[in-house]
Amino acid sequence: MLLDTSSLYFRAYFGVPESVRAPDGTPVNAVRGLLDFITRLVQDHRPDELVACMDFDWRPAWRVELIPSYKAHRVAEEAASGPDAEEVPDTLAPQVPIIDEVLDAVGIARAGAAGYEADDVIGTLAARARGPVDIVTGDRDLFQLVDDERRVRVLYPVKGVGQLDVFDGAALESKYAVDGSGYLDLALLRGDPSDGLPGVPGIGEKTAAKLLAAHKDLAGILAAAEDPTSSVTPAQRRRLNEARPYLAVAPKVVRVAHDVSLPALEPALPRTPRDPEAVRELGERWGLGSSLRRLLETLEQ
Fold first, then answer.
1. Alpha-carbon span 159 to 232, nearest angstrom
2. What is the pTM of this model?
3. Are 157 and 11 in contact (CB under 8 A)?
4. What is the 3-state secondary structure (H, E, C) of 20-37?
5. What is the pLDDT of residues 162-200, one digit of tens each?
6. 3 state DSSP class of 143
7. What is the β-pairing status of strands 2-4 and 51-53?
């Protein structure tokens, strides 16, 4: 099981009241909410291995170089070197280091890489996996990793993590009329304002799916746009040709990396805490109470 950790702690932050605080008054709603999420996921799915995948760079320079608008609207402060600062609620940002400390003390593996997003870490670990993989994320971009042959699927939270939509090949086909690899082409054609990806103006999700059904993939669509005898309409032909500069670079930006260099990690789900004393101190300092206790009890089972 691979967790898109930032996706989950953002959901926890907005789903758990900010009145949930540590003894010193620091909000810990995202921390406790994430621990509750992990507990429920372990209870419901019993993974042999679990990795919390992290954003070490939420807006990699190599993606921005290709598409400057990539996540630009979410930049809180530009950095002279290293990743730009992301616009994050003031009371969430201080909770992220606490999450890191608690997961490390419990012994839940964390993985990240400089210059890459959590999506890329997930893509790399999914590519390496020999057994079935469940990816837990609220980010539709990861649908591109769905692969029935390799038994890779996405668990998409609907309400907390107690209610998850399971996306395998059949579910993708039913909802989007594409498979996992086809979802990549659909996503870049459609665009995504939340990520600053313009897409092809005038070509939405349904039109993109129809073009892919008729011409198989992006290369086939672009070839059809050059063929005056194809079924591509004049308006679609014009829009696709005008968008060629974007379409030349978008696949590299939207495609999740599969070959990120990652440090060695121990993904096996721990039965007992890696550092019991640190767990005790963190639990007391941050008032993690029942959330931490339930996680530890669930891991022991």
1. 40
2. 0.94
3. yes
4. CECCCCCECHHHHHHHHH
5. 899 999 999 999 999 999 989 999 999 999 998 999 999
6. helix
7. parallel
How far lies 151's CA from each of 43, 109, 119, 135, in Å? 21, 22, 18, 11
pLDDT of residue 81: 65
Assigned token pair, 143: 């649908």
The tokens describing 287, both together, are 């008032």
pLDDT tens per residue across span 146-159: 999 999 999 999 98
Count of Cβ atoms closer than 10 Å to residue 182 Cβ: 23
| Closest by Cα among 98, 66, 193, 200 to 140 | 193
Structure tokens at 195: 């990520």
Distance of alpha carbon 176 from alpha carbon 185, whole angstroms: 12
Q: Which amino acid, 113?
A: A
Q: Is 176 exposed, middle or buried (0-12, 13-18, 19+ CB in 10 A)?
A: buried
Enumerate the β-bridge partners of residue 75.
Answer: 86
Q: Which tokens belong to 273?
A: 């805490």
Q: What's the CA gap between 32 and 54, in Å, rounded? A: 18
Closest CA to 133 of 45, 244, 242, 24: 45
Task: Return the residue matching tokens 């079924």.
Answer: 231
The answer for residues whose C-beta is within 8 angstroms of residue 209's C-beta and 6 or more apart is: 176, 177, 178, 186
Percent of the chain as helix, strand, coil, to the nearest 5: 50, 15, 35
Contacts of 82 (CB under 8 A, 6+ apart): none
